[in-house]
Design brief:
This protein is mainly β and 122 residues long. The chain contains no helices and 11 strands. The protein has strands at 2-7, 10-13, 18-26, 33-39, 46-51, 58-60, 68-73, 78-83, 92-99, 111-112, 116-121. Strands 2, 4, 5, 6, 9, 10 and 11 form a 7-stranded mixed β-sheet that branches. Strands 1-3-8-7 form a 4-stranded antiparallel β-sheet, with no helix packed on it. 32% of the residues are buried.
């Protein structure tokens, strides 16, 4: 089992920045690829980005490419999502997820955090 807990969400004005953190505990964190997903009210959960176990490969949804950056610190069992140039359409609950395989389909991820709310005001 892997336990995940997100933090760092909040309210920010359009154009601002936030950094989300996801702290992991349980099994060896460095064995797992990590993904960030988000879900807005009335919408399906969507892929934001992912990072491989070593941190040297990252993938992003087109909607966040160039604005969001994923990184990880395996010594701290933590993955980060740096979000810059935020837009109102980025408003959602953001989730981190872990799985042995790297992917962009939420159905492929076995372990999930409880989510953190990000609200971007216009």
């Amino acid at each position: 089992q892997v336990q995940l807990k997100e933090s760092g969400g909040g309210l920010v004005q359009a154009g601002g920045s936030l950094r989300l953190s996801c702290a992991a505990s349980g099994r060896t964190f460095s064995n797992y690829a990590m993904g960030w997903f988000r879900q807005a009210p009335g919408k399906e959960r969507e892929f934001v980005g992912s990072i491989n176990w070593g941190g040297d490969s990252t993938y992003y949804a087109d909607s966040v490419k160039g604005r969001f950056t994923i990184s990880r610190d395996n010594a701290k069992n933590t993955v980060y999502l740096q979000m810059n140039s935020l837009k109102p359409e980025d408003t959602a609950v953001y989730y981190c997820a872990a799985d042995l395989a790297l992917g962009n389909d939420p159905r492929e991820y076995n372990y999930w955090g409880q989510g953190t709310q990000v609200t971007v005001s216009s």
